[in-house]
Design goal:
This protein is mainly alpha-helical and 123 residues long. The chain has one domain (19-121): Arc Repressor Mutant, subunit A (Orthogonal Bundle). The protein has 6 helices and 4 strands, in the order αβααβαββαα. The structure holds a DNA duplex (13 and 13 nucleotides).
DNA sequence: ACACTGACCTCCT
DNA sequence: AAGGAGGCCAGTG
């Protein structure tokens, strides 16, 4: 179904780029137990190098959104957005509940990284 | 309209 | 190897 659902009554950008919405569409497809990175999302949107924009889009999400933003982390596996989930421990707990494992403070990227480029290839 | 802000990433010391 | 500077560009005030 439509990736962005009606419950998202917060304001999306009404102009053309629709950048936020495209970010959310990708994030919604990250499988449970997997994570991806800001950079990987930016790249698949054709905006390689604009990873900060992805973070900005996620930051605009209301709390309690069903967009699984906790599955987006930085390149090395650090929970750089932890502040938006009530701190590092809270975010780590959310991910652990989904089956994500850690190596110290960092997500085990070898095990859990999911590349959003896979979307295009698989129906 | 301008200036500044980011849940980042890559290059350059 | 570790840390800093700069780039990215859509929102916001």
């Amino acid at each position: 179904m439509g990736p962005i659902r009606d419950q998202h009554h917060f304001q999306l950008p009404k102009k053309k780029p629709n950048f936020y919405a495209r970010v959310y569409e990708i994030v919604e497809q990250i499988p449970i137990g997997k994570v991806t990175t800001y950079g990987a999302i930016a790249e698949v949107l054709g905006m390689k190098g604009s990873s900060r924009m992805v973070g900005q889009a996620l930051g605009a999400l209301p709390e309690g959104s069903d967009v699984p933003a906790q599955r987006v982390i930085n390149r090395i596996g650090a929970l750089s957005g932890a502040h938006h989930f009530g701190g590092y421990d809270r975010m780590r707990t959310m991910l652990r509940r989904e089956g994500v494992t850690f190596k110290g403070e960092l997500v085990d990227m070898e095990e859990h990284f999911w590349d959003p480029k896979l979307i295009s290839d698989t129906p």
